[in-house]
Amino acid sequence: MPAITDRGNTWEMVVVHRLFRREFRLAPGLIRAVADGDRIRAAVVGEFYLDLVKGLHHHHTSEDEMLWPLLLQRVGQLDTDLVRRMETQHQHLAVLLHHISELLPVWRDRADAGTRDELAAVHEQASIAIDEHLNEEENTVLPLVDVHITRSEWEALSKRGQEGLPKNSKAFVLLGAILEDATPAERAAFLRLLPAPLRLAWRVIGARIHRRAMTRLRGTD
Question: Taking the model in full, what pTM does it have?
Answer without folding.
Answer: 0.92
